[in-house]
Structure formats: structure tokens, C-alpha cells
């Protein structure tokens, strides 16, 4: 099959697979941490570095791969990133010590970041803003499935064949995706549109100085921060403070994934009919209202699982509406530098989320109140930022490819 024969649906499936590599690698590893710690005889803090270091590498990878793809083309950069990901998986698979395992996972995360950034840039090359939002929503739905199913898959593999079997799966899956991309992925970055180093720097400066792009990055970063803080702290609150089991938390967590999935599904079906700006406005408003409702329930002492996760289903539904439309709007601001826009946006999301988690980790996990308060204040701030800058977003339109 030639690259020219790849259909639009086939292209989205391939980009979705490349996008899912990073979340899959991160989350499938989490259940095997105790086994890794036992084999290498290290502390919990030392083993945790094999989780935190890859997150940092992933964030900087998002920042780097975008400009590279604007300079050298989408196809070679994605293939190079996937190849690095395969190499990192193999290093981790044969790691003789925790240091080598951490190095392998760091290399793995750096390479997998290319899938997220390049996939977004490809959609920016090919589609106008409304359709771009639909395509990004499809990609996000696949990422959510990887996030939701990966921990269960990692636990099952580890129970049957040991923790290294996780990296066997990741190596094989990454290699197959690389092969599919090598055979089928077309180049969507026209040669005459590629930038040299000076042009890349100029395009980056223009975006960072663009108030609309900064507002979009801050709003999307706030949404990521809400999610990261919840998933980082709520397991401790749910199990240690409220006395529920980890298995019960895993079941209730499906509401979080389900809310995002439903919001993304709505975007894929109604982005063209309703428009990106309207969907973004609805998503940000729903998130803020649901977060305020969740805070009210928490302050009234309703700490039962349904009182926590039902509002969060609505919150993540709103976030599922907002995130694809935010990304499409941000990339549409720089149609000739889609890779830079996607990379800067992804970096801002990861860094803001990581800083929020670090700050909130110093608060009490004895009650759900700090997390609920943070979510409500952040969601309200995002809504205010959108309301102040909404007219600028509405005027943003990406030129149709032609």
C-alpha cells in the first residue's frame, strides 16, 4: 500500500496510535512499580524517579519536536521520535539496574512526545479549525482509552510474566507503529513552508507575544492542572482518608475517563454544526459550574464516592469539550508554524499541570476540600480568562489548506 493511498480515516487511526504511545508507556508501568522496587532493592522515593523523570522529558520533548517538524517535515520527525521510543523501551527491557531502567523510560518518553506534537501539527496542516477540533477530539479519545486501560494491562502482564513483559509489549507495539508510519504516513509539511532556525525563532516569539495564544495556553494549562491535581491526590484521599479500597477507586475512576470520552465524542459530532468558539464557551462554562457544585457538596460534608465522582463526570465532560477546541484554536493562530504552536501549547499544559501538582502536594490529603477548592478556583479563573479574551478567539480562523 502506498502512502498516497492512505485515507483520511486511516491517517487519523495512524496518528491516534502514535499519539497513544506516550500515555500507554507512562500508565502501563505504574502497577509494576512495587515489583521493580523489590527486584532492585531501592526505596519508594528512588523508584518514583522512574516516573517523574519521564514526565519531565515528555514535557520538553513536546516543546522540541514541534519546531523540528516545522523545519524538517512531519514524517521524518515522527519516524525519528518513534525510533527513539523503541530504543528507550529496549533499554528499559534489559535494564540491569534502576538507573538504566530510569534512563530507558526517559528516552522512551522523549521519543513518544513526537507522536503527540506531530499528530496535532499534521491536523493543523490539513484541516480548518472546526474539522481540526474534530480530528483532535478523535486523537484525544484514543489517548483516554490508553490512559484508562493501560494500568489494568500492566497489572495483568506483570502477574503473568513479570514486570519486564510490560516493556516487551511496548517495544513490539512501538515498532509496529513505526513500521506503519514508515509505510503509510504522507508528508503534510510542504517543502516551501519549512523554516530555517531564524524563522523558527521568529515564529516562536510571535506566538509567545500573541495575547490570544497566551490566553489559550493558560486556559488549557488550567484544565490540565485541575485533572493532574485530582488524579495525583484523590487516590490518597479516597483510600487513606475516606477508607475505600484501591479497587473501588479504579471503578469510580471510570467516571473521569467516561466524562472526557463523552465530551470528545460530542466535539467529533457537533464541532462543524456548532462551531469551535461555541463549543469552547460551553465547555469552559460547564467545567466552572460543575467545579463550583463539587466544592459546595464537599463543604456541606458530602464525601461519599458518588458525591465526588458524579460532579467530576460533568467537569471532565466540559474539559472534553474544551481541550480539543482550545488546541485547534491555538494551532489555527499559526497555520504556517503548526508544529511550534502544538509544541508550545503541549509544553505549557504539562509544566502548568506539574507545578500545580507539586504545590498542591503540600496541602492536606485528610479531606477532599483542598482539591475541590483548587479545582473550583482554577476553573473559575479559566472561565474569566475566556470571557475576557473570547472575542479574540471567535475571530481566529485557520485558512483552508490549498
Overall domain count: 2
Low-pLDDT runs: 397-402
Order of helices and strands: HHHHHHHHHHHHHH
Class based on secondary structure composition and strand pairing = mainly alpha
Determine the strand fraction and express it as a percent band.
under 5%
> How can the largest sheet be summarized?
none
- Compute the CA-based radius of gyration: 21 Å
Shape: globular
The CATH superfamily name of the largest domain is MFS general substrate transporter like domains
**Total number of beta strands:** 0
In the CATH classification, which architecture of the largest domain applies?
Answer: Up-down Bundle
What does the average pLDDT come to?
81
Distance between the termini: 25 Å
Helix-residue proportion = over 70%
> If helices are DSSP runs of H or I spanning 4 or more residues, what is the number of helices?
14
CATH class categorisation of the largest domain: Mainly Alpha
- Reported by name, the CATH topology of the largest domain is Growth Hormone, Chain: A
Q: What does this molecule look like?
A:
There is one protein chain. With 402 residues, this protein is an all-alpha fold. Helix content is 84%, strand content 0%. The protein has 2 domains: 183 residues, Growth Hormone, Chain: A; 192 residues, Growth Hormone, Chain: A, CATH 1.20.1250.20. Helix 1 packs antiparallel against helix 5, helix 4 runs antiparallel to helix 5 and helix 5 runs antiparallel to helix 6. The radius of gyration is 21 Å and the shape is globular. The chain starts with 7 loop residues before the first helix and ends in a 7-residue tail after the last helix.
